[in-house]
Amino acid sequence: MSLKKCIIASLVLAVSAISLTAQDFPTKKSPEGPPMLGIHWVRGMMAPARSGGSPDMIFHGGTIMVTTSTQAIFWGTSWTNPGDKISGMDTWYSGFGGSNYAKTSDEYTGTNGQVSATVSYGGHFVDTTKASSGNNTSSILAEVCRVIPNPVSNGYYAVYTDLPRKGNYCAYHSYGSCGSTPVQFAFFWKLDGDAGCDPQSTVPNESQGLAAIANVSGHELSEARTDPRNGGWYDSNGQENGDKCAWTFNVPFVTFNNGSEWKIQGEWSNHAYDTGTGYPNSSGQDGCLDGH
Fold first, then answer.
1. Domain presence at residue 251
2. Is residue 100 part of a domain?
């Protein structure tokens, strides 16, 4: 092959490696790792709503999470002094499954079945080594594969770091594989004292830092269940069900299946929008449900 043809071929491969899918815009994708999906942007920074036509999410032909097995990883040197955040998130995940809040995503189907509120919690792991930046999705996936003893294909592994936010987002979810096992995972910054990611909860007996990661956890878990591997449900702007209702709250708190209370955003429901039974998102579209 001539030198000129070699150069052209290399350029084509380079462009292909960084090309974006419909959902990755306006999210992010790194050629070094899996894409950041369903980015939970800070307050006031969200993708624009669709102009004209229905704002409903569209099925893109992929799988969903029929059932979900969750575990949490608390990664970083300061998790030796966690305050109420580890115990609080244990309570959060333990109460999520079977809750009316979880059921807000049950209308969505995929090539493998229908989303259900069957969400189990296998407990948490604490890794007190220095956490890696969430801007590198490969390092977060590697942490999941290193810490989780027996990952499962319907696993959702939430990685909570002790790193203050760097950038204009609070969290994201993504996917990859641990060996031959496909997995779903999510990344969360430390949000203590972070006004951009604060739901301003008035629920008693919880710290602001716990309230903040609890709210964004609802966003990311709901999105992972309905669009786990970049082929499920999202709208024409690439927004998933959590994105479409970000930073909108219908009630002061939502009660989970174990009686715990959380200030938490709603999730988008096509059915609620189509029947006029939801509450409005930040664009005034009545499609959000919180199961309160």
1. yes
2. yes
What tokens does 267 get?
Answer: 């999730």
CATH code at position 240: 3.40.390
Per-position DSSP letters for 111-131, written without gaps between them: TTEE--S-EEEEEEEEE-SPP
Please confirm whether the linkage preceding 280 is cis (ω < 30° from 0): no
What is the pLDDT, as a whole number, of residue 166?
Answer: 94
Percent of the chain scoring above 70 in pLDDT: 87
Rounded Cα distance, 140 and 132, in Å: 7
pLDDT at residue 45 in the model: 81
Bridge partner list, 127: 75
HSE of 157 in the Cβ direction (CA atoms, 13 Å)? 28
| Domain span at 240 | 60-289
CA-based nearest residue to 247, from 89, 105, 44, 100: 44
Cα 39 from Cα 223, distance rounded (Å): 10
Q: How far is CA 209 from the centre of its chain?
A: 18
Residue 89 covered by a domain: yes
Over residues 53-106, the pLDDT tens digits come to 789 999 999 999 999 999 999 999 999 999 999 999 999 999 999 999 999 999
**Averaged pLDDT of the chain:** 89
Predicted local distance difference test score (pLDDT) of residue 134: 87
Q: Which strand ranges, in their side-by-side order, compose the sheet holding 279-280? A: 267-268, 286-289, 279-280
The residues, any chain, with a CB within 8 Å of residue 51's CB and separated by 6 or more, are none
**The two structure tokens encoding residue 110:** 């995929």
Q: Examine residue 19 and state whether it is found in any structural domain, yes or no.
A: no
pLDDT of residue 25: 34
How many domains does the chain contain in total?
1
